[in-house]
Amino acid sequence: MTNELDLIITAFKKHLALLFPKVTTAFDVMLNIDAERQQFGDLSSPVALIYARELKTNPMILARAIIQNFEHPLVASIQIAGPGFINFTLTPSFFTAITQKILSHGSSFFKQDKSLPIYRYNIEFVSANPTGPLHIGHGRGGIIGDVLSTILTFLGHTVTKEFYINDAGNQIEKLGASFKIRCQQAVGMAALLPEDGYHGDYLVELAQQAQAQFGDQLAMQPDSFYATYAKNYLLEKIKNTLAAYGIIFDVWFSEKTLHDSAVIPQALEKIKQANYLYEKDGALWFASTAFGDDKDRVVRRADGQLTYVAADIAYLENKLERGAEKLVMVLGQDHHSYVTRLKAVLEALGRDPSALDVILYQLVTIKNEGETVRLSKRAGRIVSLEDIIETVGKDVARFFYLHRKADAHLDFDLALALSRTEENPVYYIQYAYVRTISLLEKAARTGTTFMQINASDAPFLTGKEHLIIKKILALKELLSDIARHHQTHLLAYYIFDLAQLFHNYYGGSIKIIDTENVAASRARLLTVTLVRDTLKLCLQLLGVSTPDKM
Asked: In the predicted model, what is the mean pLDDT of the chain?
């Protein structure tokens, strides 16, 4: 929906288009929500500095020309600051109108404008091999994909959350062979696990469970039994861990189904028809260097075995055939070279490579009181995502994994995660939310004077409330920005800043419930109401709980 801020920015852009019809360089108009810099107005724009480069003129002269004839009923004054920034101070009427609109529309105020396009997204994340428990790194990819999916859905897009099960190929064969040996050991047979087998204790424990079920017959099963039994168990364990983490997938896509059907040959034939497949040394190659890859990729070995690249080609085509218009994949940083290859596949298939966005996330280190935790099951230290969730809880795990940019290394501070103080950002945010509820309940108990806070209280907002209203307003553009650029950590930053702004407001000199100044007090309680609702919305988008009491 169009709001008062949109109207001001649209009017300003029209003004600039009339002044400089040939200039097309993009510029920003930004809300000033820094409490320490309120002297620079409510909106700021560097347009004069940006245009000055193209027009080869002095930015200060340009800024004066820009503001000379611009007027808007919701703009009280315009000033030039620094080397040519244009700063707008908004009228009290602006804050009254925007507050009333946010209050009346609730969470729908922050949804995407109907004029913007709606897409069908396929977001694939986690996609761990079902050969062991989820490790600590999977928690990071999981929360990025899940929160992005939630935000896009909230904004009106159709989203399919998908887990790609790597249940074909050598890793499953190795899992079956490793589990078979553990089963033989469980029934007392002398068997030695090879160096390249799966050495985790989880297979020892699983073999003991299976031995209780099958007895000595456990070691007499066909080879296919061991791979299937272990894979099914580990996949179920992965699903349970993710459910405890608050992640429920729409689709669990089996790689094996690609190999069991005709889709891989069909996809390869499509690339062959486009002249991007060739034979060399008895193998079949995809000419991915034609699209910027560092080398061509084998899709079928000389022995006739299809490679994972062949499966990837068919899988990408399958996603698009199922109706996805936008593809997002969340992968570890070690898949960096994979991005070019995937886009090459799309282009070779005659698809738009820009339809794919790959989010790469860096490694995770667990720290406790400043020391890196060495991962050791025997020492009872955390080794898996399940351990993280059981130790610190779902809420803290989700927030801590998200509270840093994906392409930056993440130190997961265990001591901080376990603390119940304001130093823990999750506790700090949830406490702000609980405090808003407590304040509103206390106000209601004071008497009918402070009940039924409504839009008619908005004209009595003052400067301190205006700052909070601007912060709340900023969420709309923030969510749109996350939808465009997939930087989900920005929501974690935002909600912490909003909580901090509210805590400072509550702990300041203002008396929120004031029976001697009813009009101002009701306006403050209106602000508290909007903070409560905005914190609740953000917590829900993050998949973090909203407690009533703490």
From this structure: 94
